[in-house]
């Protein structure tokens, strides 16, 4: 019997068989020729890692059980007890919670760098500083980092640059090509794209760093299951079609909301008024993604009414699916910051984050118009 599936089937097996001791030695002697145990490697998770690695232009990648695991793996690839990291102050809430609540217990300390000071890192560096963690486009205010300038700054100080590229995706920006050392994703978001997978991936520019990532992934048990990998690969095949569609819809919505009297501010890098618009234009090749935040009146009743009325933007605290949604940074991703930190970042009662999907844009515009009316 000859079976030739067109796409990779799901290898839903935790372990693989060997004929005898000779074949076991071939596994160790010819890396990549065979599989042993799915935590160490599986055809589906390897296919996902390799596909993202190719898009990001890295040496190698590891697929992880979540975006958080991808961040953890990246930090542990470079850091040990006694080390210090720099982190952009505008960062996903989970990233700062990981650093503050868990890595601090392992003896890895952190200093947060305000957005305005990201290009003057020497003021924040200590002898034990290893790296800077930042996002291409920050969550939730869509501040855009100049990655080439950051990479030059980091390398001049002997630091590695680790970039969370979740909001941009490699269709919009490829951080390794701009000098970053590691790029990572919450695959849960645009890479898989259909709100049905939790996964992550970490890609290294350098093969030795990639080997460290792989070891951290395997020994901490961060690696991804076959089914989730398969779903993510399936989603990834349309990433290059989805990102322009998300971007087109988001720009039309940002322009509409900017004119709306109930909206006090729109944070979207595609708008000419956005402080990093020119940088975003250049770094993103003319695409700005599907994420934006809007400021309504700082009044919970106004926010609740908007959430209750909107049909096409359900309040679902994630992002980047083909179907639109909205989220609320103050109550979800940035809930555990101090009130001072929240205020400093502009995360107030009226701030709502929109994840614009790829539905017909007239339907989305009509829904927002009635929800704000
Ligand atoms: C969601 C998200 C994460 C965390 O990813 P999970 O898949 O939820 O673990 C990290 N960074 C950014 C920017 C995110 O949006």
From TrEMBL:
Record GO biological process: cysteine biosynthetic process via cystathionine; transsulfuration
Keyword entries, A-Z: Aminotransferase, Pyridoxal phosphate, Transferase
Gene3D superfamilies reported for this sequence: Aspartate Aminotransferase, domain 1 (3.90.1150.10), Type I PLP-dependent aspartate aminotransferase-like (Major domain) (3.40.640.10)
Cofactor: pyridoxal 5'-phosphate
Modification N6-(pyridoxal phosphate)lysine, positions: 189
Annotated GO MF terms: cystathionine gamma-lyase activity; pyridoxal phosphate binding; transaminase activity
SUPFAM superfamilies hit by this protein: PLP-dependent transferases (SSF53383)
Record's keyword annotation contains Lyase: no
InterPro entries the record matches: Cys/Met-Metab_PyrdxlP-dep_enz, PyrdxlP-dep_Trfase, PyrdxlP-dep_Trfase_major, PyrdxlP-dep_Trfase_small
GO cellular component term of the entry, any: cytoplasm
Family that this chain belongs to: Belongs to the trans-sulfuration enzymes family.
Protein name from the UniProt record: Aminotransferase class I/II-fold pyridoxal phosphate-dependent enzyme
